[in-house]
Amino acid sequence: MVMKRYLNQITADEAVTIIKSVPPHCSSRRIPVADAVGHRLSASLFALYSVPEVPVSAMDGFAVRSSETVGAGDQTPVVLRVFSRVNTGNVIPGEFDAVVRVEDAWFEGEDPHEITVRKSVNPGTNVRPAGEDIKEGQLILPAGTVIRPFDVGAIAAYGITHVNVSRVSVGILPTGTELIEPGTKPRPGQVVESNTVMAEAYLRQFGVDVVRYPPVVDDPILIRGALERVLAENDVVIVSAGSSAGTKDFTASVIEEMGKLLFHGVAMKPAKPAMFGVIEGKPVFGLPGYPLSAQTVLRLFVRELLENWGWTGPAQEFVQVKLGDSISSEGGIDEFSLHAAARLGDRYVVIPQSRGASVQMTGVRSNVVIRIPFGVEGFEAGEEVPALLTVPREELERTVLIAGVYDPVLDVLAETAMSANVRVRCGNFSGLSGLLLLMKNCCHAVCITDEADLDVLGDQKVLVRPFGRASERSAVRIVFREEMEKDPLMQKLFLVMDAVNSGSN
Questions:
Q1: What is the pTM of this model?
Q2: What ranges do the domains of the chain cover?
Q3: CA distances, 448 to each of 223, 429, 436, 466, 480 (Å)
Q4: Does position 49 have pLDDT exceeding 50, yes or no?
Q5: Which residues share a beta bridge with 403?
Q6: Which residues contact 352 (CB under 8 A, 6 or more apart)?
């Protein structure tokens, strides 16, 4: 039997170039204005009439001929016998060209046909001219605009009840005989179909429509039939799983049969099996089955396609982070390494997470991605490198990094600390390696189970606190640098620890 290999392994940057070469494939639909927020206009909007259509009063008062008010003042009032009482928004009769505010005029005696004016006005004073807001046929919003909540009121005010909006629909097709729906405990050999749930949540941030289809078993005929349906109903297709080189990975051959496979295999980690093709002018992505691989393809490739088509997702922000440990890579790949980051003093520091593509909790426990570029074998400890945030930067300011061994009591700490608006992120190391990070000032604290490990610190001054409810406390100690005792964030954490230790939580 001939083993299948990745067909044309290319660099991540080459893959992005290929993806961006695919022209936009969008559709349009007509929807009520009230439902248009967040949608992108496919056709420009023009006012159906002027607003206001005729001159109207901008104040409560009296419509007058401005020429008859010349010289009016507190000491030189002017009596007018030709005027019209108006309220804000009333039409100005054609013979008048200004409005005297009600507080600047009064009636003389009991004659309702005579007012005394104590302030002169010029032509147009307190009058909204026809078309002041907008004139008939004037542009309201150009095509391509993403409609905001406050735009809706204006659009409706100018006579428009429905708008044409661009639509990009992404169809997600999971494949795999082993897949089961979320909510069911998997038996040995089964996998909960969670990648497409994650993909849908990620893609909705771009304002696109997303349709998840039922899983298809590993059969090329069935996969082709399902893919034909998804293609007919969507502008972009993502096939989840089936992109690797296993005996039941049919996605690549099906894409080749139906269209053109542009690449299969990218020199990167995770997501080496990623693939991309075009069928009937529509882009088709092959999403690897491992969760972190799937996330990488979405973040690196699918995002590039959508943004190149004009669909903007959440902003990507980078920060410089200091490495406590070296990071190695194979050198001939782009590697995307997940870390937990936080502010410590005047810089951001990171502790690594598991690098296994199948370990989904790595994505949960991390908050930054460090890219080790193609041709680079890694970064040395102490280097500062750019890291892509996967959370708002604000979260890093209230995050505490705890290295060292894992103990269930750390889950208690992480859960309880949230009530004090402190986010605890941990890295699973040995106690000794965690203490070495502490010595480099690259984490806030270290969890240890063997106090003999403290010998590595020499004469460095630290605080050692037991942690856990007295009734269930394991032999866990949390170690801090002595100067952290005055840190405001750590003071919050200490209060949480004291509360847990006393059993009040």
A1: 0.80
A2: 12-26+168-308, 27-51+133-167, 56-128, 315-391, 398-505
A3: 51, 10, 12, 10, 11
A4: yes
A5: 446
A6: 325, 327, 337, 338, 339, 427
